[in-house]
Each structure stands twice: as C-alpha cells, then as structure tokens.
Amino acid sequence: MIGPEIFSSERNGKQLQWPNLTTFKLHYKAATPAGEWLFDRDPRWIQPSPPNSPPYPGSDNEWNEEYETPLEDWREALFRSHPLPALNDLYLAAGRAACHMPKLESMLLEGDVSNDRGLDHVVDDSSVAKHEFEYDRSCGRATWVSTSAFHVTDEIREVWNAVARFHGHDEAKISVRLT
C-alpha cells in the first residue's frame, strides 16, 4: 500500500531532488496505508450472487452449489475500480515530485483494480478493470486510462502543466481514455 507520502516533497526542510531518475513505475494497491480506499465499487460490474440465490441462466444447479465462491469469501477490494477523490492527492504529489526529476523520461502509476479472480492472462483485456496514469516526457503527455470515469481536476492539470514546462514543453497534453 502507498499514499502520496511516497513522493514526499520535503525532508528536514529541504526539497527532495531526483536528479538521475529516468523511469518511475509503480503498481499500487486500492487503499492507502491509513486504510482509506482510493477506489470505490463500480456499479457496472457484476456483483457476486448472494447465498441461496437462483443459479445463473443456463448453468447447472449442482455445479453452482458445489463450486460457487460464498459471498463472504470474496476479496474486499473486488470490483473496486471507480476512482475516488483521495486518488487526486497521489497524482498531485507525483506531479510535484516530477518537477524535481530533470531526467525523467516516463512515469507509470498503475492501480490494482483487477476485478476478476486471477484470470487476467485468459480473459479479453476489455473485461479487466484498470486505472493507469502515464507521463511521457518526449511529447509532454499525461494520460489516464481507466475502466471507470476519472475527472482530472484543475489542480492536477496545473501541476502536470508545470511538469511539462519543466521538461521543455508549453503545456501538458492531458487526456483521459475510458476502456
């Protein structure tokens, strides 16, 4: 688990510097160390069936009863893919830190919002939830790719525009792509 503190901008009153960092990749969990969720359940995803519910259409009753995972055994984070406002703090902290990374070429922040049961490698990519942020210095592009709607706040736009200017661009090319 991580929080914005990973990009802490001050230590002992001095600004942290990242003079030689060229690539930053981070895969983070759906909650902060303090236990605050970064993602909420997206109502568009199929929820698990409650106990003693009728079988799915076209399914075999015996199979469902014997092999269906009980509701209480489903992971707490399952189906959490809708970004919450707390996630903005992470993007602000990352942008502020990137302003002190003169050699940064790329940054990838990938949220752990998988909603399946470990079948990423066998299912169509369109059925797997995702939430990613990528910054590409070569063109000053800041891109969010998300299964659920994500709103880039003015404050986030400002900080990533500052990063792009720091890296020689007029402003960031900011985009949000829904998958």
Automatic annotation (TrEMBL):
Residues 41-62 are annotated as: Disordered. Pfam families: DUF6546. Residues 48-57 have a biased composition (Pro residues). Residues 86-171 form the DUF6546 domain. This is DUF6546 domain-containing protein.
